[in-house]
Amino acid sequence: MPVNTAQFDALVARFEAAGKNAKKELGRALSNSQRAAKAEFTRATRLAFNVKVANFQRHLKVGEADQSRLTYKIDADDKGLSVTAFNAKQNAVGLIAKITKDGTPTVFAGGFFPSKGTKTTVPFKRDGSKRLPISVVRGPSAGDMIALANVQEAALKKTKERLNTDIEKRINRIVTGG
């Protein structure tokens, strides 16, 4: 079969260009996956917990990517979220918040919101008599929530799928010259 040298040379040039652009495109795919991972962990957590998105995402950080191993780290701090992130309401007993979607509401006896004249909306609890100091009422931390197996499975599955399809699209675009 005869080979057209002009087409062959063009193909060789395209593969050389692909080799030069591959590392940059891989980095872009990994960067897109990092942003998507934060969204996927938030989505998976919202399926299990009754938490507000903004309050949860404030406690998630996406770390530096390692292109050679196609990895990056997601850090979730261990500071408990205020129960206002779980739509806490005050009643006669104290504060009540439905933390998990499938569970019963949790009652924080003695919890209260400050009076209307203050600038804070953080709920507090006093352990003992009125002369004792108050402490913030907290629910589970972001780290506790994403540590659950069902949250991790759902988020990691979607993140891996997205990374694989993004890499595949970028490789096809480089090879085909599109």
Entry keywords:
178 residues; alpha+beta; 2 domains; three-stranded antiparallel beta sheet; 4 helices
Structure notes:
The chain is 46% helix and 17% strand. A hairpin with a 7-residue loop joins β8 and β9 (134-136). The model has no long low-confidence stretch (mean pLDDT 84). α1 (5-48) packs antiparallel against α4. It starts with a helix and ends with a helix. The chain has two domains: 5-77 and 143-176, no CATH class; 83-141, no CATH class. It has helices at 5-48, 53-57, 142-146, 149-176; strands at 60-62, 74-76, 80-82, 89-90, 94-97, 106-109, 111-112, 124-126, 134-136, 138-141. By secondary structure, it is α+β, with helices and mostly antiparallel strands.
> How far is it from the N-terminal to the C-terminal residue, by CA?
28 Å
What is the count of helical runs?
4
| Elements, N to C (H/E) | HHEEEEEEEEEEHH
What percent strand?
15-25%
Number of strands: 10
Outline: rod-shaped
Counting copies of identical and different chains, the oligomeric state is single chain
Radius of gyration: 25 Å
Q: What's the structural domain tally?
A: 2
Uncertain regions: pLDDT < 50 for 5+ in a row?
A: none
Q: Taking all residues together, what is the mean pLDDT?
A: 84
Q: SS-based structural class?
A: alpha+beta
What share of the residues lie within helices?
40-55%
What does this entry show, briefly?
The protein is α+β, with helices and mostly antiparallel strands and 178 residues long. It has helices at residues 5-48, 53-57, 142-146, 149-176, and strands spanning 60-62, 74-76, 80-82, 89-90, 94-97, 106-109, 111-112, 124-126, 134-136, 138-141. The mean pLDDT is 84.
